[in-house]
Amino acid sequence: MRLAITPPTDPTAYPFAHPIRVRFAETDAMGIVHHAAYLPYLEEARVAYLRHIDRPYTRIRDEDGIDFTVIEAFVRYEVPLRFDDVVDVHVLVGKVTRATFQLGYLLTVDGERRATGVTVHGCVDATGRPGRLPAWIEVAPGVG
Amino acid sequence: MRLAITPPTDPTAYPFAHPIRVRFAETDAMGIVHHAAYLPYLEEARVAYLRHIDRPYTRIRDEDGIDFTVIEAFVRYEVPLRFDDVVDVHVLVGKVTRATFQLGYLLTVDGERRATGVTVHGCVDATGRPGRLPAWIEVAPGVG
Amino acid sequence: MRLAITPPTDPTAYPFAHPIRVRFAETDAMGIVHHAAYLPYLEEARVAYLRHIDRPYTRIRDEDGIDFTVIEAFVRYEVPLRFDDVVDVHVLVGKVTRATFQLGYLLTVDGERRATGVTVHGCVDATGRPGRLPAWIEVAPGVG
Amino acid sequence: MRLAITPPTDPTAYPFAHPIRVRFAETDAMGIVHHAAYLPYLEEARVAYLRHIDRPYTRIRDEDGIDFTVIEAFVRYEVPLRFDDVVDVHVLVGKVTRATFQLGYLLTVDGERRATGVTVHGCVDATGRPGRLPAWIEVAPGVG
Predict the structure, then answer these.
(1) Is D74 in contact with A76 (Cβ distance < 8 A)?
(2) CA-nearest residue of chain B to A36?
(3) Residue A1 forms part of a structural domain
(4) Annotation marks residue C28 as catalytic
(5) Cβ contact (<8 Å) for C24 and D29?
(6) What's the predicted TM-score (pTM) here?
(7) What is the pLDDT of residues C65-74, one digit of tens each?
(8) How many domains does one find in chain B?
């Protein structure tokens, strides 16, 4: 397991947050958001974070010719999310190595903690071969 | 609207059926299968039908270099599906033109009707340009 | 088929539009948004429309004790959507009967048409029994 | 983090495996299965495992009046899954405490490892309050 960061539970520790409103399609028969729906939330927030630091993912794909892969993903579900909740997904860049970087996430609703998560990413070129991370990752805001 | 077929409500009118067990992830907060989850059911059944007539979709993509696109989709929801239901998705080939073909679907659980659907498909090459349908579609079992 | 409206292709014919940014999770191996992902877009726009006319769906569920069911859904896919596109989903209320109402949708990106759709809805109480539609539906903005 | 088991990479270490064929809807624009689609695979396999040991989840919900919640989920993605792959999802019961149990997963295609995963579960009653786990979990096959 490469997972090596513990996402802070204090929202002010994060340089960026992205709001997402829960869709009805994301709920399940327990009346709450299905646990698999959280990973697209983390992804949407990560894409918004990259846009925010002026590294939009479409440009990373189309111009740099690379894709960020997901090597590991972890979610800790604390309090259920419900239909129509507006979830603030806080994002920070954690550990960066030559080939991987880790992002930490905190999900809150009205400032109250609902979940935390971590994703570990690598990088592949257009042929699917692993490559070096772009240098700007190391200096992205929020790298701790 | 190109949609031009009415799926029979009699299961014996179909040359093929494919069973799918409902996942919990596919339910919603009303306690039933979310309406958007039906389209992947139709798709899974359509892929199984193509495999059944010895035209596996992976071969269509990799060898013939074409993709079937979805031009229109229609679903009529009659009786809700629930978690763990085993749904028989019946498939037939309806109207075929030079550039499009239509599939009709009947969804049953224990022989009782739950939904019907229609999808209209075209064909694109690897560059995304529309192309002619392969000739075998016209003689596929179930063409009415 | 109850489907009885043709969604206008002119955005100005709609009283409401809701923007949705395409998630990477919603794309498929053809490099475009998977056709099943459109139904949650229509749903999100419909929920936003209800909030906009001051009939938030959470209140409909919790206070009025009813749920809107989906009886039929139709989508016509014209030009593919791609990752990171911002899709404007235009919504109008079409035909209203005592027991059902129909919504029409137009999806555009930068003002250009990508898809249209129709959903037909009924109404159930907390026990799942069909009921009468609330009267406000008949006078909702956009009823044509 | 409660996650405390490491899923074995040897398929023979697992008492149960469940085959799932990848849907086209589950792929993404990188041409592989989207990372969020793995969690429903683990869920489907877990439900199949419970049925296999004669504890079908529908009975757990309807008769015992409890639901298993997901407290934590972890996936390690090693080799991508592709459309139409038949994935064998191996399941075992790992650590069991009074209030939680952990399941380990190994995903293989043609016997080759593609991913591993862990889910940590608790138990709630019909009102959503946490409860004790049923005793049979402790003696389920595969508890290591």
Answers:
(1) no
(2) B25
(3) no
(4) yes
(5) yes
(6) 0.97
(7) 899 999 999 9
(8) 1
